[in-house]
Amino acid sequence: MPDYSAATPRRPKGAPAPARPGRYTAFVRTLWVLFVGGALVAGGYVLAVNSNFLNLFGRMPNLKSLENPRSELASEIYSADGVLLGKYFRENRTPAEYKDLPQNLIDALVATEDVRFEQHSGIDPRSISRAVAKLGRGGGGSTLTQQVAKVLFKTRPDQPNTLNDGLLNGSGKVGILIAKTKEWLLAIRLERNYTKREILRMYLNTVEYGSNAFGINTAAKTFFNKAPRDLTTPEAATLVGIVNAPGRFSPKVHPDRSRRRRNWVLRQMAKAHYIPATELAADTAQPIVLHYSVENAAKGLAPYFRTEVAKSLLAWAKETDHDLYADGLKIYTTIDSRMQQHAEAAVNEHLALQQKWFSAHWKGQLPWRDENGKVIPNFLNISMRRTERYKSLMNIYDGNRDSVNYYLRKKYKMQVFSWQGEKEVMMSPLDSLAYYKRYLQAGFMAMNPLNGQVKAWVGGPNFKYFKFDHVRQGKRQPGSTFKPIVYTAAIDQGYSPCYPRPDVATTFPAVAGRAPYTPQNFEGGYSGRTFTLRQALARSMNSITAWLVYKLTPEIVVGYAKRLGITSPVDAVPSVGFGASDCSIFELCGVYATFVNKGVWTSPVMVTRIEDKNGNVLREFQPQTKEVLSEETAYIMTNMLQASTTEPGGTSTILHTGFKFPNEIGAKTGTTSNYSDAWFMGITPDLVCGMWIGGEDRSIHFRTGAYGQGARLALPLYGIFMKKVYADKDIAINRGPFPLPAKPLSIEIDCSKYTGAAQRDTIPYDQKMAQPDLQGPDKQDI
């Protein structure tokens, strides 16, 4: 057996016993050991979180992210004259500079969220115990810097990203503790990288205020229609009070609760000596007066245009690794805000009147009719099946038509559009569809033909209720507005504007599967008289256009349509000259601009440049151009289009006789079968305008030319718009004549010696087809 006695020497007899430590000393030593041990454990824990040990905690942001913290910023779209048209965003946030933040806002924030903000370096020791105590309720006791870290880097477990993909991140209190730890670490780093002012600015620019308002700029505009610098102390306190719980303290949704919260913020300000007691009493007594307006795509100028621009920008953003809805881009467009306002006002004014007549015209009757004027059976049900609502219901109820039909016929309280303003009604989805099908639609575009810049764009009656764009997205038969393409081909093939041709029938012979085709004039017959080509275009005579198509061949006409900018499919058929193939206003504006621009086709341009959030130019845009006509042919066509407004019997003489425009204007009207589509194209030296009016479906239209033809349904819109433009002294618009070509013309364009017989006894078109009123000669149709 081992001898253990030698291992421990005995105390000699008589020697004093060693002193034992007192209880207090032992306690202190124990505390010290625990403290050191705890510090080592805590330090190890912090290091583990910081390094994402074994991928337990999720990664930490790198230095670059800290130096350039990213939050989503709304991209802004501007007019050519510097007016903000609207924004593209997921989070509606536009950053404010610190100099634009009023002191009362800063005071309210500090007093409420972090009264010792200036004394700490990211972590407030007094708050840590509160944070630990509240872990089970999502934390608490965060400094402003920690809150900035939380918002910027999305540290919380319910905010999925690569910072929260650790194995322990979603584990209840453990996950919250990890998130708080990251926020403490990030707060310290933020304090090292930024000044207190910069951190305050970050906070106010990043937090959410509810109502899709992110950042103080958007919040001040949304709730009070003000810039932050103009906020009163009670308004600043209201906004600061919201950020703690936007849904709970919204002054729009919960005004009483919001006022109590605001007053608590004001008391905190008084407690911190930011406002005197006398001011506190006055401020807390004030009601909250909102000027509430949530920004969305339907509000602001040119919503249809902004939507179309977004389509092209999304493709650019994908190619260049940008995010249109989060990068804070500045997009500068060609739109003139004043022209846009005039265009929207003109469409509203004209369409409201036409709708009044249309509603009276079909009063008590269903307007969806076939070519024989008979009601189309099952029209609404067929139309409903094309809607997203129907598809959604079919998906929800697994194709059970009984359930779907029940909900399609169930009435709900809803807001609907009317020209007298929004109104609240009880309607079923089918009722709503029938209601909106009865509304006339419109599209309007104005562009500068010399540089392709789009100056105004109205895609429909009201973007909130009618999202479909009738400028570029919508394509309909252009009717007689296509005829100038035929005449352009004729001029190029050697025909003179003064070439005489009798008004007689032209028949296209039958070919495989197609019967003989004999186009008739609008009035239905033929006069037998002789007209020049200039007169024929002015009067929009189908007989002479048909003869030209016959002589040129439909294939030649299609070739010219493509040369002049028609990108939609065009069928080489005898009816091509009458606009039988669909195209858009956008395409036709490019065609007519070529005549004004001396034969150079110029692609319509919507955006001039894109800048990043710091003002660096990312891209500039130039129009595509191509010389497709000789300058002589282009000028001759411009001159022939003027005949529509000057020749007796011309379809657009009312522009001079009725609207009293003294300057040179070229024009062309267009009407399709059964008056389904009414078109008008107008040109001046630096402005080309195109417009269309009709029903959402081709089967919905007026029944008579007195209401439904282009000269009646579309032309007045141009007159209303141009009157507004000419009256606006801030718009520089050329009222002079069309410029002459550089070289003398090689063919005669003065056709007066050929026109005497045709002009005699011709009633001016605008007198023959005067605009009817509701009590006029067509009242039997009402």
From TrEMBL:
<comment type="similarity">
    <text>In the N-terminal section; belongs to the glycosyltransferase 51 family.</text>
</comment>
<dbReference type="InterPro" id="IPR023346">
    <property type="entry name" value="Lysozyme-like_dom_sf"/>
</dbReference>
<keyword id="KW-0511">Multifunctional enzyme</keyword>
<dbReference type="GO" id="GO:0008360">
    <property type="term" value="P:regulation of cell shape"/>
</dbReference>
<dbReference type="InterPro" id="IPR001460">
    <property type="entry name" value="PCN-bd_Tpept"/>
</dbReference>
<dbReference type="InterPro" id="IPR001264">
    <property type="entry name" value="Glyco_trans_51"/>
</dbReference>
<dbReference type="GO" id="GO:0008658">
    <property type="term" value="F:penicillin binding"/>
</dbReference>
<feature type="transmembrane region" description="Helical">
    <location>
        <begin position="30"/>
        <end position="48"/>
    </location>
</feature>
<dbReference type="Pfam" id="PF00905">
    <property type="entry name" value="Transpeptidase"/>
</dbReference>
<dbReference type="InterPro" id="IPR012338">
    <property type="entry name" value="Beta-lactam/transpept-like"/>
</dbReference>
<keyword id="KW-0808">Transferase</keyword>
<keyword id="KW-0573">Peptidoglycan synthesis</keyword>
<dbReference type="GO" id="GO:0071555">
    <property type="term" value="P:cell wall organization"/>
</dbReference>
<keyword id="KW-0961">Cell wall biogenesis/degradation</keyword>
<keyword id="KW-0812">Transmembrane</keyword>
<keyword id="KW-0328">Glycosyltransferase</keyword>
<dbReference type="GO" id="GO:0005886">
    <property type="term" value="C:plasma membrane"/>
</dbReference>
<keyword id="KW-0121">Carboxypeptidase</keyword>
<dbReference type="InterPro" id="IPR036950">
    <property type="entry name" value="PBP_transglycosylase"/>
</dbReference>
<dbReference type="GO" id="GO:0008955">
    <property type="term" value="F:peptidoglycan glycosyltransferase activity"/>
</dbReference>
<dbReference type="GO" id="GO:0030288">
    <property type="term" value="C:outer membrane-bounded periplasmic space"/>
</dbReference>
<comment type="pathway">
    <text>Cell wall biogenesis; peptidoglycan biosynthesis.</text>
</comment>
<keyword id="KW-0133">Cell shape</keyword>
<feature type="domain" description="Penicillin-binding protein transpeptidase">
    <location>
        <begin position="443"/>
        <end position="685"/>
    </location>
</feature>
<dbReference type="Pfam" id="PF00912">
    <property type="entry name" value="Transgly"/>
</dbReference>
<feature type="domain" description="Glycosyl transferase family 51">
    <location>
        <begin position="84"/>
        <end position="269"/>
    </location>
</feature>
<keyword id="KW-0378">Hydrolase</keyword>
<dbReference type="GO" id="GO:0009002">
    <property type="term" value="F:serine-type D-Ala-D-Ala carboxypeptidase activity"/>
</dbReference>
<dbReference type="InterPro" id="IPR050396">
    <property type="entry name" value="Glycosyltr_51/Transpeptidase"/>
</dbReference>
<dbReference type="GO" id="GO:0006508">
    <property type="term" value="P:proteolysis"/>
</dbReference>
<keyword id="KW-0472">Membrane</keyword>
<keyword id="KW-0645">Protease</keyword>
<keyword id="KW-1003">Cell membrane</keyword>
<keyword id="KW-1133">Transmembrane helix</keyword>
<comment type="similarity">
    <text>In the C-terminal section; belongs to the transpeptidase family.</text>
</comment>
<protein>
    <submittedName>
        <fullName>Penicillin-binding protein</fullName>
    </submittedName>
</protein>
<dbReference type="GO" id="GO:0009252">
    <property type="term" value="P:peptidoglycan biosynthetic process"/>
</dbReference>
